[in-house]
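input
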Amino acid sequence: MRQQPRAHAEPGAPGTPQTGPGQQDPRQEGTGRSSTKQPGAASLSLIPAALVSASGFLLFAWQDRLSGFLLLAAALVVAGFVSRRLLIDLALIAVGLTAMSLVPITTDISTEHMMVMGTAMILAVGIPYSVSRFITKDHAIRFPIRTGQPWTRAEKWYLPAVLVIGYALMPVYMIRTGVYTNWPAVSDPDGIARLFLGTNVLGIWDELFFICTAFTLLRRHLPDWQANLLQAVLFTSFLWELGFHSWAPFFIFPFALLQARLFTVTKSLSYIVSVHLLFDFVLFLVLIHSHNREWIDIFLY
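output
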């Protein structure tokens, strides 16, 4: 019997995803994956990506601006030899790191400092997003708020669990180590409102930059676990400079890893922000209690 020739899907045929220049395969939309990733390129991409992550450690945790910028420049040079796409993506991360490294990263809640640091935060997220959206037009960076997918039972139960974990952890860490003194002592309504605003805005920005921007761009070129480790170094280093000293990296680093993993699974910015802000709410209450021990006297430490 004659064998029938195998049918091939024609462009535009039903069930065949169509992509144009600079567009992502619809099956991969929202995953941060590049549909043009070359086999074996991840091993080469890891070198400049790791250098970018190391530069963040020098810029923020070590506070060695010169060495940090030199390492960041070296990372971009190496990336240029690997691929143009990698160079662009790492340069977008570098823009954010540079913007933040040029301003004081402190817990000062004065109007002047909040304006300066807030401007840097907007540039760190806004420039990479704008380039991705309007110049390269690959729209790799997205901030998915309404995904249309309901949260699972496990995801819902994790939210109150976050409050319990925060209640058990934050007072012990903040008060026993004395790290709470890195935050201003406030007792007036204006100061309390500023502290609440600053804590929450910074928490949202952490997710916008380290997860939705840095992690998303890194995982276009690396396996998820490698991209996750590198973004967690950046995440932890930044919060160290902010004031989370002592043994904070031992819980911030795993938290950063888990946030990226949750984003990978849920593809929802609103979910990871909800998790982060629940931790930050406990942090806010602990800070108020730490400086005013008779207030909110509900913690064990």
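quick obs: Residues 1-31 have pLDDT under 50 and may be disordered.
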